Amino acid sequence: MIKTTGVLHHTVSVSDTVVSKKFYEDVLGFTTIQHVPQIDMVFMRCGEDFVNLTKSKTPIRSNNNDDFLVHNAYKIEVSKYDHAKKFISDLGIKIIHEEHRYEGIFHGKQFYFHDPDRNVIEINALEKVTDGFSDEQISDDDYKVFPNLKT
Fold this sequence. Notes:
Elements: E1 9-14, H1 17-26, E2 31-36, E3 41-46, E4 49-55, E5 71-75, H2 81-90, E6 95-101, E7 106-114, E8 120-129, H3 135-139
């Protein structure tokens, strides 16, 4: 086994690094470390974490329609949630799902929307991290892990 110590970065597939760079800077407040045109990749910082935007050589389609299970989640301060939601709405970006989750691992208010390539972004006003669902909940076929999930 390799004992990893954390996540260095995650990579977001995009169709146009220039358009996506502007979106992630202007909408999510990321800062650009470096754009490397030879490989069409943008290295960015989000707080103390790193995200790379990379031009995809294949069509980008991680979810159908407004499904949101495949997504990248970004934390905000709990007190900033309403402002963040209004900011996204004022930009004309459709919020595809919202909930205040008290079950599972990540508790707090969260909403989801698409970036220019329809990658799903979650904004999470994280209140606490827990041990997750109980074994009884997971093994119960009638229990709805996410009752508000569109299927």
